[in-house]
Design brief:
This protein is α/β, with parallel strands linked by helices. The chain has helices spanning about 20-30, 90-95, 95-115, 150-170, 195-205, 225-240, 255-265, 290-295, 305-320; strands at about 10-15, 35-40, 60-65, 80, 120-125, 175-180, 185, 210-215, 220, 225, 245, 250-255, 270-275. It has a seven-stranded parallel sheet with strand order 3-2-1-4-5-6-11, with helices on both faces. Strands 7-10 form a two-stranded parallel sheet. It binds uridine-5'-diphosphate.
Length: about 325
């Protein structure tokens, strides 16, 4: 890393900082006066997401895979560990890097936090609940995960990541936080990301068939990225060390989401059915009472409003030539 001129203020290390959520965190921390070290190996992230900060003195980019150890110079006040493929097609394409970044990458990121005596925040996931047998899912539910199924590479890596994070808290007295992120969407998701909202929006904008997996009765609830970022900032500041769900509790079927996106894009795309992926959770909805109580947080952006902003972003990408 070539460090730009010395700058004052607190420093955040954001692994996965060139990814969808990581890059929004970079924006937020920079806007609050922090110095940001953005670390990414760019397997699913993109420099386009952080291009706006290229000339910013308080921003440094380090191309590195956090699954391998790294020594960073200077003071670091907070480590936010967001590096990981997160879309099912991505973690199926990169099963071993996904396991490694959840296990070795979390270990290395915790090692940095321990050496620098900084706060540590782990990006965990609602996937730790697997295909849940209770709904909504509260943090006290231990989940229903198939460890050897195709999604196990992500689910178990994140479960391990939570375990080692709390071990560092207990053993090394590190101030650690764990956010369990439920489905999140917004600008900077890749067109070919493979998750449901990027798929439906890009298919609808191109007038291609919208691919509904299974009967479409499975449910999800979708949180706009600015709401998630606000929850993460509050969690880092004053949250408990135990995991906290951050997500939008507005649960709906995937079939209904398809119709909503078709209407908002003004598309006449057909809806076609495709096989349901193995171990696709039937229901997912966060219980956000902990976040409400400890962080005074609840989502503010209504689904349609968030979708309209996301559709505007995707229009510029689809027009610019499709896949990226
Ligand atoms: N899905 C779908 N069509 C798509 C992509 C996804 O019907 O083109 C479904 C998928 O089977 C799942 C839900 O949408 O039930 C959310 O999938 P996503 O990949 O966004 O993430 P997940 O919540 O499964 O991690």
């Amino acid at each position: 890393m070539i460090r730009k001129k010395r700058v004052q203020g607190r420093t955040a290390l954001i692994t996965g900082g060139a990814g969808f959520i990581g890059s929004h965190l970079c924006d937020r921390f920079l806007s609050e006066g922090w110095r940001v070290v953005c670390l990414d190996n760019l397997i699913t992230g993109s420099l386009d997401n952080v291009r706006a900060h290229e000339k910013e003195r308080r921003f440094d980019f380090v191309r590195h895979d956090i699954s391998k150890p790294i020594t960073l110079p200077g003071r670091i006040d907070a480590v936010l560990h967001f590096a990981s493929p997160a879309s099912p097609p991505d973690y199926l394409r990169y099963p071993i890097p996904t396991l490694k970044v959840g296990a070795l990458g979390t270990h290395n990121a915790l090692g940095i936090a321990k050496a620098k005596r900084s706060k540590f925040l782990l990006a965990s996931t609602s996937e730790v609940y697997g295909d849940p047998l209770v709904s909504p899912q509260s943090e006290s539910y231990w989940g229903n995960v198939n460890p050897v199924g195709p999604r196990g590479v992500y689910d178990e890596a994140k479960r391990y990541a939570e375990a080692i994070t709390l071990a560092y808290h207990r053993e090394h007295r590190l101030d650690t936080k764990i956010v369990r992120i439920f489905n999140t969407f917004g600008p900077r998701m890749r067109i070919e990301d493979g998750r449901v909202i990027p798929n439906f929006i890009s298919q609808a904008l191109r007038g291609e068939p919208m691919t509904l997996y299974g009967r479409g009765t499975q449910t999800r609830s979708y949180c706009y990225v600015s709401d998630l970022v606000e929850g993460i900032v509050r969690l880092l500041g004053r949250g408990p060390n135990a995991p906290v769900n951050i997500g939008n509790p507005n649960e709906m079927s995937v079939a209904r989401l398809a119709r909503l996106i078709r209407r908002l894009t003004g598309s006449d795309s057909r809806i076609v059915h495709r096989p349901l992926p193995v171990d696709d959770p039937k229901r997912r909805c966060p219980d956000i009472r902990l976040a409400q109580r400890y962080l005074k947080w609840r989502p503010q952006v209504e689904l349609s409003r968030g979708l309209v902003r996301t559709i505007e972003y995707f229009k510029t990408r689809v027009d610019a030539g499709g896949r990226r």
